[in-house]
Amino acid sequence: MTAEILPFANAAGKPEASIDAMLALTAPGLNAVNAVILDRMQSEIPLIPRLAGHLISGGGKRLRPMLTLAGAELVGYQGTRHHKLAASVEFIHTATLLHDDVVDGSEMRRGKAAANIIFGNPATVLVGDFLFSRAFELMTEDGSLRVLKILSSASAIIAEGEVAQLTAQRKVATSEQRYLDIIGAKTAALFAAASRIAAVVAECSDSEEQALDDYGRNLGIAFQLVDDALDYSSDAAEMGKDRGDDFREGKMTLPVILAYARGDAEERTFWEAAIAGHRTSDDDLAHAVALVDRHDCVTATRERAQHFAQRAADALSIFPDGKAREAMVEAAQFAVARGH
C-alpha cells in the first residue's frame, strides 16, 4: 500500500522550501560521485582539467546527479553502480553548458566569467566534447544497454532542444506550446533520464521506472520555467549571470510570450523590435521588465512552474512515504520557491 500524495504548502508565512533535505539524503553518495568526476576529468593535456574544473567546481548545485542518488535511495538500491552513472549525468550537463555559453556568447556563468571568455570558444567547445566522451565511457563501463539507451537518447534530445531553441530565437510568434516543447527537450530530458536510471539499476518495475521519469521530467520543466522568470525578476548578483541575457539574445521565454500576448498594440510593437534585436539597451531592458511586471507574467510563469512541480511530487505517490520521498518533494518545492 502506498502513501497519499504529499501536497505543497502554499500558506503565507511558511518557510521557503529548501534543498537541504536532498543534500543531506545524497551527501555520502555525492562524495563518491565527486571523486569519480575529479578522476575522470583528468587528462595529460593540462588545459582540459583546468577548463573543465573552472565550471565543474564553480558552485553548481549538482542537482541532476542528486536526482540519480535520491532515486536510488527512494527505491532502496544498495549497490554503487549509480555513482558512475550520476557522474556521467553531470558530465553531460557540464558539456551542454560549455557549448551553450559559446552559442549564446555568454560572459558569466555561476557568478564568474564563463569558460569561453577565459579560454576562448575553440577550447571550450573541445573540452565540452571531451566531457561528452567521458560520459559515454562511464555509461559503457556500467554495461547496461538500457542505461546506455536512456542517457544517449537524452543527449540526442538535449541537442535537438538546443537547435529548436536556436531556430525559435528572435521569433516573436513562438507559441507557449513550442516553448514548453523546447524546454522539455533541452532541460527536462536530462532530469528525467537522471531520475529514471536509478530505477533501472535497482531493477524496479516498469511503473516505478516511469514514475521516476515523470518526476524528473516535470521537475525539469518547473526548474527551467523559474530560471526564465528570474531573468526578468532578479539581479545579476543573485542569478550569477547578467540580468536580461535572455532578453538581449532574443529568446522567447514564457514571461515574454505572455507579455506579448497580453500587451496592447504599442507594447507588441516594442516586443517585436526588441526580440528582433533592435531594442536591447539598458533602458529597453528596464521597459521590458516593466511590461512583464504590468501583466504579472513572472507570477504567471511561477504558477505554471508550480503546476509542473506538483505533478513531479504527485508522480512519487506510488512510493511509500519516508525521508527520500519527502526530500524529493521538497526539492520540487525548492525548484519553484528559489530566487536564484
UniProtKB/TrEMBL annotation:
Taxonomy, superkingdom: Bacteria
Q: What GO MF annotations does this protein's record show?
A: all-trans-octaprenyl-diphosphate synthase activity; metal ion binding
Which major enzyme category is it? transferase
Q: Give the Enzyme Commission number.
A: 2.5.1.90
InterPro entries, per database record:
Isoprenoid_synthase_dom_sf, Polyprenyl_synt, Polyprenyl_synt_CS
> Could you mention a single GO BP entry for this protein?
isoprenoid biosynthetic process
Looking at the UniProt entry, the stretches that span the membrane are none
Q: Which cofactor does it need?
A: Mg(2+)
Gene3D superfamilies hit by this protein? Farnesyl Diphosphate Synthase (1.10.600.10)
Q: Which reaction does it catalyse?
A: 5 isopentenyl diphosphate + (2E,6E)-farnesyl diphosphate = all-trans-octaprenyl diphosphate + 5 diphosphate
Write the record's keywords in alphabetical order, separated by commas. Answer: Magnesium, Metal-binding, Transferase
Does the record bear Magnesium in its keywords? yes
The record's family statement is: Belongs to the FPP/GGPP synthase family.
What function does the entry list? Answer: Supplies octaprenyl diphosphate, the precursor for the side chain of the isoprenoid quinones ubiquinone and menaquinone.
Protein name as it appears in the record: Octaprenyl diphosphate synthase
